[in-house]
Design a protein that fits this description.
heterodimer, A: MetI-like fold, two-stranded antiparallel sheet, B: MetI-like fold, 23 helices, 6 strands
């Protein structure tokens, strides 16, 4: 009891000291405060620039490790190397005369991404519409966690599912010779791209605003007509950004395509036959890097594939930024 | 009419979009149900007495007396099966018997020498023994029943010959006796067929009950035990009781699967009752019972995941994620606070925001390349793939996630909180630390939990920077070592580790032995999903409580 009161007394005395402190600071205290404040701000700013540093380091190191792939042969060889990389469909790094043509890999990446988007964009946009315009509040509260959990499942677990469950199913029920093929990879990538597409497009459509919808209803339009003719056109840049972000998710995905696509580096022909094995850029890096000695031509070639991928996603990212910025600006105008 | 069409369009659109959401929910179930349904069998399953023996031998778990009694019970019913198998195989696989007959003959010669038999008697006896031996070998090598029986009768006639009384040669007659019994019941012309089938049966019994008595102990743990789980035991039993053959009905016709009961294959032979016996004594043979093998989450593997659990993988994943969080949380939260509270709308800030978005869009495999080129190759202090390099790579990967979530959380703190604090005389920094950040705490925590689950699930960034499929558990040293050399406290940072995410990849695609044990494969993937989904559910719960609180006030 006494201890508590002693402590209380002490606190009171401290508080009293606070109150008796002069309100004006001395010049030296003022200066110290000013310097400390700016020093603190600078430190905070420096910490914040870590992300900038990270981006620059990523670009610097990926470019540094991929440049020797082009420059080892000297001036004239550079063009030949560039041409080989982008137009040769043969990726045979361990042949006696190695070929580093990434065309089949680039096509493979785009192929599964397109396959994924064909499924994910309609389903994702419809689900986005459902969440933004159709579902009542309570239902939305249930649907959101479902989509979040879909996004939370790690990519390697999806890959595991593709190899262990989906591939045998495809083999026995659809009669494919191999269950690990472009169809398998595309389906799983579609599921993985869905959460991104849904949440971004739902945001875009919610942001269109209530007034514009009510105006449309007021003119006698049905809900479907309102959504198709008013909401989607008004939120189109956000929706496009959603598609691009979903595309980025699919093209940058590694584990699923590595496990489920069959890893045969050739351009699929005929192009519509999804039961063929393909190989993507990401799977090539993941699969080859483990057994590649450092500073070999193959090592540099893999970094060049990584650089291609990085530039690809970087430009897609800029595009989505631009579109989202446009969407935000449009909202501001209204 | 037009109204009707418009109504149909409206209803159709609503149905389609509700259908899309249902499709997504269905996709989630299609993914999760098999993963959990089959993964849980790694933890909860019907064990056999072999599993209890394994646990006892490996970890000393279980009650000695109980186990001994169970093993004795099992041995009692296994013994007749082993006897039947042995006796039958003696008649079918005659090569060892021929060798034995020759051995007996040699021993008889030694016996005669030992007893100092007179010279003329010696050669006579030896000749007689040689005749007996040759008769027996002929019988053993012949496929025709009548020849065999005649040969054996000729051999057995010599049984009362005084030359062989009380000598090792009596073994000839015991062998002949046993072989005659088989020759009378078994169609010896199908001996080759019996032989292959017998080998399959023996293999199945080995799968079911472990190595046969008298066989040397196999070097691998997985071969030293029979079926440890009921599902594997049932598979072995099916192989024991039924033969699967692919037979074409004629040239050019496709192969058709035929299932033939082994009982029919061995009809009329002394092996026939074995199959009924296995079925009748099934419960006693293996003594199945339910087991909750919670130690799965702590045990190390045995024989590349054929037995054991995922303990080191869980430990590795925790080490990697916690280490990466140690770096990413301070950086991320401070960046977010700065961006919300201090940053103006300058060019620099725009660049920073763009970089954060870029960082969020970099493919995870490129993080792996960067981690390899920067942390592993360029930073000399690290120099090789290890926990430190992998977790630093992961920390950059989750940085944008934490920044965005924290930014949102800090922005959601009502302006009135800050104003109240400022009005009480607190400075801007004090307001941030004492008022804004605590108020944003649950939101920031949600972001941290989400990025934790992201880091735990990522595989590509740690592929080249510090993860292995079959490495040792990181060595943390001991307190005495730490006292001696404080540097060794951090030694584990410079070792590679196993992780759940890479383990799930390897166990599905790379590891051939664990392909024999699908429950182990699904168990690993289930553990990973369980970990990440549990973290996400926790985040969702925190957020919903938070939003209720916000709506409340």
């Amino acid at each position: 009891m006494t201890e508590v009161s002693v402590q209380g007394e002490k606190r009171n005395r401290n508080a009293a000291a606070e109150f008796t402190r002069p309100l004006l600071l001395s010049p030296s205290e003022d200066l110290a405060g000013y310097v400390m404040g700016h020093l603190g701000l600078t430190i905070l700013f420096l910490i914040t620039t870590t992300s900038v540093a990270a981006v620059f380091l990523i670009f610097y190191f990926v470019i540094r490790e991929s440049l020797p792939f082009f420059t080892t042969g000297g001036g004239a060889a550079i063009l030949a190397r560039v041409r080989e990389f982008f137009t040769d469909p043969g990726w045979y790094p361990s042949a006696t005369e190695p070929r580093y043509g990434a065309l089949a890999l680039i096509v493979g990446s785009l192929y599964v991404t397109a396959g994924a988007l064909v499924v994910a964009v309609p389903v994702g946009l419809l689900a986005g519409v459902f969440l933004s315009d159709i579902a009542p509040f309570n239902l939305r509260q249930i649907c959101k966690p479902v989509i979040e959990i879909l996004a939370a499942i790690p990519s390697v677990a999806y890959g595991f599912f593709a190899v262990m469950v989906l591939a045998p199913w495809l083999q026995t029920h659809l009669g494919f010779s191999s269950g690990t093929n472009a169809l398998n990879a595309s389906l799983i990538l579609a599921v993985m791209a869905l959460p991104t597409i849904i949440s971004v497009s739902e945001d875009a459509m919610t942001a269109v605003g209530r007034e514009i919808r009510e105006a449309s209803y007021g003119l006698g339009a049905t809900r479907a007509e309102t959504i198709i003719n008013v909401v989607i056109p008004a939120g189109h840049s956000g929706i496009l950004a959603a598609v691009i972000l979903g595309m980025m998710r699919a093209i940058g995905e590694t584990m699923v395509v590595w496990m489920a696509s069959g890893n045969a580096s050739r351009i699929p022909s005929p192009w519509w036959d999804l039961s063929q094995s393909i190989r993507t850029m990401t799977a090539t890096i993941a699969g080859d890097m483990g057994e590649t000695p450092k500073d070999s031509e193959h090592y540099y070639a893999l970094f060049t594939v990584g650089l291609t991928l990085l530039l690809f996603t970087f430009s897609l990212n800029l595009l989505s930024e631009y579109l989202l910025g446009k969407a935000r600006a449009g909202r501001g105008r209204r | 009419m037009k109204t009707l069409l418009r109504q149909i369009q409206d209803k159709g659109f609503t149905t389609a979009s509700a259908g899309a959401v249902l499709l997504i929910a269905a996709a989630l179930l299609v993914v999760l149900i098999p993963m959990f349904g089959r993964g849980i069998t790694a933890v909860i399953f019907t064990e056999t007495v072999e599993f209890r023996r394994l646990q006892k031998d490996l970890h000393g778990r279980g009650d000695n007396e109980h186990l001994a009694r169970a093993l004795a019970d099992a041995a009692a019913v296994r013994e007749p099966i082993y006897t039947m198998l042995r006796e039958f195989s003696e008649g079918i696989d005659t090569e060892p018997l021929v060798k034995q007959a020759r051995d007996v003959y040699q021993k008889y010669g030694e016996y005669l020498n030992y007893h100092n038999t007179p010279k003329e008697q010696y050669s006579d006896y030896r000749k007689q023994a040689k005749d007996v031996r040759d008769g027996l070998v002929d019988a053993l090598e012949s496929d025709d029943r009548q020849t065999v029986l005649d040969d054996l009768d000729a051999v057995l006639k010599e049984k009362d010959n005084p030359a062989f009384a009380d000598s090792p040669a009596m073994e000839f007659f015991a062998m002949a006796q046993r072989y005659k019994k088989i020759a009378e019941t078994v169609d010896l012309s199908h001996r080759a067929e019996y032989l292959t089938n017998l080998q399959e049966v023996t293999a199945a019994i080995r799968q079911l009950l472990g190595p046969l008595p008298g066989e040397p102990t196999p070097p691998l743990w997985m071969d030293q035990y029979g079926a440890t789980r009921l599902d594997m035991a049932l598979k072995a039993r099916a192989a024991l009781l039924y033969d699967e053959q692919w037979i074409s009905d004629g040239p050019g016709k496709p192969m058709v699967k035929h299932i033939i009961a082994r009982k029919e294959q061995f009809a009329g032979t002394p092996l026939e009752p074995l199959f009924d016996r296995v079925e009748a004594d099934w419960d006693k043979l293996l003594q199945p019972r339910l087991r909750i093998y919670w130690q799965y989450f702590f045990d190390d593997w045995v024989n590349s995941h054929y037995f054991g659990g995922v303990g080191p993988e869980i430990l590795g994943t925790l080490l990697l994620t916690l280490m990466s969080m140690c770096v990413a949380i301070p950086l991320g939260v401070i960046s977010a606070a700065y961006l919300v509270e201090y940053a103006g709308d300058t060019v620099w800030i725009k660049i920073i925001r763009m970089c954060i978005n870029t960082l969020a869009g970099v493919p995870s495999i490129v993080y792996g390349l960067f981690g390899l080129a920067f942390f592993v190759v360029t930073i000399g202090a690290i120099g090789k793939p290890c926990i430190l390099a992998a977790s630093l790579t992961l920390s950059i990967l989750v940085l944008p996630v934490i920044i965005r979530a924290s930014e949102e959380a800090i922005r959601a703190v009502p302006q009135t909180y800050r104003e109240a604090s400022l009005a009480l005389g607190a400075g801007k920094f004090r307001t941030l630390v004492l008022v804004t950040l605590p108020a944003a705490g649950p939101g920031i925590l949600t972001g941290i939990i989400l990025s934790l689950s992201r880091a735990a699930g990522e595989t590509a960034p740690i592929l080249f920077t510090g993860v292995v499929a079959m490495g040792p558990i990181p060595n943390f040293g001991s307190p005495s070592q730490w006292l001696e050399n404080p540097g060794s406290l951090f030694g584990w940072l410079f070792q590679p580790t196993r992780a759940l995410s890479y383990g799930s990849y390897d166990i599905a695609v790379g590891d051939r032995i664990s392909m024999l044990a699908p429950h182990q494969q699904f168990g690993m993937a289930m553990t990973l999903i369980l970990l990440t989904v549990a973290l996400n559910v926790a985040a969702i719960l925190i957020r919903s409580r938070l939003s209720r609180k916000l709506r409340g006030c």
